[in-house]
């Protein structure tokens, strides 16, 4: 005896392929919306959203080898190097060969980069206000996204090199 699906099952299965049912698209759309909001929030600081992420790590860590910075941001060197070059040209960071290991390049904040942190303190509040979520909802969403990322990292079919 063969099993066949009913028309209602076929429709339900087809619904799985609707764009608005895809979690990946919801995340993509939210990411693009966040980028737009960040573009406005960061305009006065003179940096882009990817540059802001670099600065966040450096404000937190002080100085880091380029390799560690890339790992923390999940960026390859081909993407990270131009970001660092623009931040260096803007006088916000400095790249120098490590005294301990000549193969390694360290990234550190300049005085101007350190001073920018004070002006950046308003950015998270502006972004939070734009979401219309309360602080608990924001924390819950962040925690869920972190768990999702960890689960996907664990089950990724292709592990990054």
TrEMBL record:
SUPFAM superfamilies: Winged helix' DNA-binding domain. GO terms for molecular function: DNA binding; DNA-binding transcription factor activity. It comes from the Bacteria. It is found in: Cytoplasm. InterPro entries: HTH_MarR-typ, MarR/SlyA-like, Transc_reg_Sar_Rot_HTH, WH-like_DNA-bd_sf, WH_DNA-bd_sf. Residues 20-150 form the HTH marR-type domain. One of its GO terms (biological process) is response to stress. GO terms for cellular component: cytoplasm. Gene3D superfamilies: Winged helix-like DNA-binding domain superfamily/Winged helix DNA-binding domain (1.10.10.10). It comes from Streptomyces capitiformicae. This is MarR family transcriptional regulator. Keywords: Cytoplasm, DNA-binding, Transcription, Transcription regulation.
């Amino acid at each position: 005896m063969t099993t066949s699906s009913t028309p209602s099952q076929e429709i339900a299965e087809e619904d799985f392929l609707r764009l608005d049912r895809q979690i990946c698209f919801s995340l993509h759309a939210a990411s693009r919306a966040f980028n737009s909001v960040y573009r406005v929030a960061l305009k006065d600081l003179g940096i882009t959203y990817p540059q802001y992420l670099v600065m966040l790590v450096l404000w937190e860590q002080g100085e880091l080898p380029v390799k560690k910075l890339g790992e923390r941001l999940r960026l390859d060197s081909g993407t990270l190097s131009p970001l660092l070059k623009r931040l260096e040209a803007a006088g916000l960071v400095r790249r120098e060969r490590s005294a301990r290991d000549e193969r390694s390049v360290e990234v550190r904040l300049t005085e101007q980069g350190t001073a920018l942190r004070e002006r950046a303190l308003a950015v998270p509040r502006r972004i939070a206000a734009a979401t219309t979520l309360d602080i608990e909802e924001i924390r819950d969403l962040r925690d869920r996204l972190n768990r999702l990322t960890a689960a996907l990292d664990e089950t990724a079919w292709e592990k990054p090199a």
